[in-house]
């Protein structure tokens, strides 16, 4: 599925890949519409329809992920509202074992996320995820989302890499397709990003897994283990 022997760098999406996408889905589809409805004297379902329509109009752009943009558009403190649900922020299954395996294998791990810096900080405070990877880059630092193929060239400024020896792991097929178009050698899709929802269908050309336990054996077999790094459990 993945040739781990050829890799030097593993780029990792955060939401839906390392962290359970349930937090974000619940926020945008349930919590935010409810708060917006309360603020504007609307029925929650009508507020939800309006917000989803606005969000989908920005799909594939940096605004889609921008907390500042949505705070302005909706006249609400998006980061503050997200903090109300911070207890829902958590790891996906087997993430600890996976990140530990990457370190033991001597691979550089870098989170490459479309998450805005404000909710990113909230999630890092809640999970301590930044302690277990070699770096974190938000697309907001580069002014374009991962769906833009130009993002990957600009990424060299913040996280230098060799495309031929790099793997990108993400739950978004458009992002993975963008990475492939930009020359990233290998991609891996995540089919079960939200613990409360059914898994997605596989991509016809990109290898996919439901959870990281499906690749642990291959990493152990293909890469020498020479480094230990204690990580939090998935309990």
Automatic annotation (TrEMBL):
<dbReference type="InterPro" id="IPR023214">
    <property type="entry name" value="HAD_sf"/>
</dbReference>
<dbReference type="GO" id="GO:0008253">
    <property type="term" value="F:5'-nucleotidase activity"/>
</dbReference>
<keyword id="KW-0479">Metal-binding</keyword>
<keyword id="KW-0378">Hydrolase</keyword>
<dbReference type="InterPro" id="IPR036412">
    <property type="entry name" value="HAD-like_sf"/>
</dbReference>
<dbReference type="Pfam" id="PF00702">
    <property type="entry name" value="Hydrolase"/>
</dbReference>
<protein>
    <submittedName>
        <fullName>GMP/IMP nucleotidase</fullName>
        <ecNumber>3.1.3.5</ecNumber>
    </submittedName>
</protein>
<dbReference type="InterPro" id="IPR006439">
    <property type="entry name" value="HAD-SF_hydro_IA"/>
</dbReference>
<dbReference type="InterPro" id="IPR050155">
    <property type="entry name" value="HAD-like_hydrolase_sf"/>
</dbReference>
